[in-house]
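**User:** Once you have settled down, spend some time on the protein underneath, comparing sequence with structure tokens, and judge whether sequence predicts the tokens.
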Amino acid sequence: MKKFILLVFYVAIAFFSIYKANAQTTVVRFSVTLPGNGISADSAVYLTGNFNGWSVKDENYKMERVDACHYRLDVPCFANKNYEYKYTLGSWDRVERAADDSEIKNRKVLSSKNVKVNDVVVRWHVPAVKEVHKNTLMASLSDEQKAKIAQVKDSLGKSIATLVPQLKELLGKTNENLLSDNPDEAVSKNLKSQFGVLLSDLFNQVSFGVRTFFGMLTPEQKKQLREVLKTSDNPGELFDMMTK
């Protein structure tokens, strides 16, 4: 009899725990209207937020298509909890933005029973053409190419690390000579010559790294790189890519 009473007691506790857990959850329906003519049927809208660790392309948070401009999703949430979220097309490069393409603050919702959210996306961020080519190029690199680039980067970094202190030392000596009461022309000439040697060495090291980088690219990758450099206003774009 005691065993039966204990069994009933434990079952009651289990049911109470389940009931309590269920009472603490709710479902929030998110509905969103997309800008313009919406998106094609083979594209997708994703909901991302602190309810899924801000995973930008979580298939569990892929929204249901109503039509080209309208999507919806029912999301289980803890009740009476503040959530933050945004809409994306599957990447942070295609996240919702303000009308002027500036970033917007996270959307917020307080989960409660039967709450329904109706949002409007003003526009999607469209990455610059340069970034598209750059991302395509970097994504196309094989593991072998990446390993070689890492070797070039390491070698170039060591060379620069050796040359920079020498250049600083020469600059210090140059300043010291020029600021003296009687600057020595012969010393200046000698320091200038040393500067030339070091700068030439630095140029050769960088040129070797660039040639090596170019040499490991396929024709298609070189085409992508040309597009990146053609649309770039940053003279150091290539070096940035090599050392990323």
About this structure: The beta strands are 25-33, 46-49, 64-67, 70-78, 82-88, 96-97, 107-110, 116-120, 123-124. Confidence is low (pLDDT under 50) at residues 1-23.
